[in-house]
Amino acid sequence: MHETDVHDLSDDADYAASVQQGLARMNRSDSSKQSSSGEQEGAEIVFLKDNVAIHPTQYASERISGRLKLIKQGGSLFMTWIPYKGQSSSARLTEKDKSLYTIRAVPFSDVGSIRRHTPTLGWQYVIVVLSSGLAFPPLYFYNGGVREFLATIKQHAYLVRSAEDANVFLVNDFQDPLQRTLSSLELPRAVSVTNSPSSAGAPSESPSSWTDGKTFDTNSALAQQNASQRQKHNDPARDLSIQVLEKFSLVTRFARETTSQLFREAQGDGFILNDRRKHDEKTHDYPRIADSNDVQKLPEDVPVPADPLEFDKLSLVWGKPRQPPLGTEEWSAFLDSEGRVTDSEAVRKRIFYGGVEQDLRKEVWRFLLGYHSYDSTYAEREYLVSVKKSEYEMIKNQWKSISKEQAKRFTKFRERKGLIEKDVVRTDRSISFYDEDDSPNIKCLRDILLTYSFYNFDLGYCQGMSDLLSPILYVMGDESESFWCFVALMERLGPNFNRDQNGMHSQLFALSKLVELLDSPLHNYFKQKDCLNYFFCFRWVLIQFKRQGV
Amino acid sequence: MASTGHTNLNAKLVLLGDMGAGKSSLVIRFVKGQFLEFQESTIGAAFFSSTLAVNNATVKFEIWDTAGQERYHSLAPMYYRGAAAAIIVYDITSVDSFARAKKWVQELQKQGNPNMIMALAGNKADLEDKRNVPAEEARLYAEENGLFFMETSAKTAVNVNDIFYELAKRLPTAQPSQSPAGMVLVDRPAEGFRAGCCT
């Protein structure tokens, strides 16, 4: 795999074709953009770099390589990235995937910033973020050239290094992102790019609730936001729309205004008045956000698509009683006669608002985590469980069969085993399920994690994984089933554990952008305190709030 | 020891070292006086602060406790950047952790603040029967590299306060007070210095 990608592809016929195709596309999009002026000047390529790749999954081997170009035309600078044709490093990547990621002639007037990552290990990459908040997936420079890329942009467009972060380059140093971008807000893609587009439905139960059904009532607004973001991942077209952002801001504002309301009440303002004010805000919630950011012109015509799956507005109001957890009887009503879940959205929505009864979790989590597909039948699942059981045993045997003598000469194995053994003995030991010193459950955690590190040898073991596995084992009780649920979860969360931290970076970056839009005073505070990298949220995101709310 | 009219210092302190060497346990023993046999792993980093009185000054340590796994190495510079002091921790029962400690020392010598005061802590000193790193070897290494060295035990509290106190004492008193880098998550009132030192 490596060799084919590393050598220069400019002689490749398919590749040449793709370049033509790319240029043609670019010209098309240009001419449509510039139709009024009718300019058809020749495009000048001012920068060209081969072997610039994106990683649609956490596996570097499944990268899509392509050619990155900066093109100057009619006084404007454009960026294109066209994947090489017919150069699939993996059967899992289709041509459709490639065209999904293709970057066709993005004018730099639309670019907000470029974030440069130069990890000491691994490849340099940049993340290009549009002023709208949309971020392209990280572009990995396999042949180097990030510095040259930035230098070229600087020659042709306004590029300035951010005062807060030496690795961020602002392209159009916009003063008020809200003003410029409200109408085209598609911010959450910055989150979704790190996840495989085919990722399974996310569990919307709070991870902090796994030990019993009662603790979840302490849910935080943030956890809700987080869960609902994940819930939306499946459909990029309906990724957090402006509508959802609107509702998040409602939460933020409620928290803020509760305080000021207390003052108002103390000053003798009637309760009824406040109550009415609250209602007014609910219905005219959008202009209020705009107010708080000094936007003069209200984009009243922002398209707000009707979405039947959206939360109803009232449900995000503080103090609404949480629904009781989903029980067995109600669950079976979601299944057809052969055991298929007929309306998975409805199930997830129901669970989002109420959670799942402890006894039912074992069954439902398999769907939520993505191990079982919603349209599978009882019979198919039963079969799958038995097949997967022997598959698990097989993978487990790969390390079980390593003899002491062999292990002596297998440093990587010893290291991994050591890491895992250090962590499992200190994972959730305060819970009775894991509290005995020779608990078979601790051994089970170790076996699953070690087996996973063989199943996904490239990713290996990383701190935080034991935190994610522990509640799964507690709920599933079964080693093989827990393993496959964990595998499914890691399909989604794997990029967070990457060595170059790209999964975490893009999520923390998206989080910073959300806060910037929804709570600018908080954003400014973080800016002042020099913590816009949001690393203080690292643990929350990495282990999905698992250590909170205990 | 603590007199009035003394100077106040804020000093950023970072803990580095192999996974499971006991970085968090050392800090928690120092800051809270507690010890957990199974201290959970640190994800990302953790922040603590603690104030102690030394000579004529009050030193407020802003302590960054880092994650030990090699995979998180790339985050470390963010935490040691601008640090006035560092404790590099290894586990006396693990030769590998001592090797890793040396790597941290090298990295700090190359990339850290040149005036940084560094301490080498051989932790888990209570596990004498499982010792794999001779104290003499570590002491020699520390001397050669301008670190001060102590064997500590977060479990029994041996030398834990002492190592922090020793660091505080060695801070240049003329060092200007610097504003904390990052957000203060845990702010503990000055407690003075609990255990005896240098006696």
From TrEMBL, chain A:
It is found in: Cytoplasm. It comes from the Eukaryota. GO terms for molecular function: GTPase activator activity. InterPro entries: Rab-GAP-TBC_dom (IPR000195), Rab-GAP_TBC_sf (IPR035969), SGSM1/2_RBD (IPR021935). Residues 196-209 have a biased composition (Low complexity). Residues 355-550 form the Rab-GAP TBC domain. The lineage of its organism: Eukaryota, Viridiplantae, Streptophyta, Embryophyta, Tracheophyta. This is Rab-GAP TBC domain-containing protein. GO terms for cellular component: cytoplasm. Keywords: Cytoplasm, GTPase activation, Phosphoprotein. The keyword Ribosomal protein does not apply. The keyword Cell membrane does not apply. Its main location: cytoplasm. Residues 193-216 are annotated as: Disordered. Pfam families: PH_RBD (PF12068), RabGAP-TBC (PF00566).
Automatic annotation (TrEMBL), chain B:
Its main location: membrane. It is a lipid-anchor. It comes from the Eukaryota. It is found in: Cell membrane. GO terms for biological process: protein transport; vacuolar transport. One of its GO terms (cellular component) is plasma membrane. Coiled coil: none annotated. Keywords: GTP-binding, Lipoprotein, Membrane, Nucleotide-binding, Prenylation, Protein transport, Transport. Pfam families: Ras (PF00071). One of its GO terms (molecular function) is GTPase activity. Protein transport. Probably involved in vesicular traffic. Belongs to the small GTPase superfamily. Rab family. NCBIfam families: small_GTP. This is Ras-related protein RHN1. The lineage of its organism: Eukaryota, Viridiplantae, Streptophyta, Embryophyta, Tracheophyta.
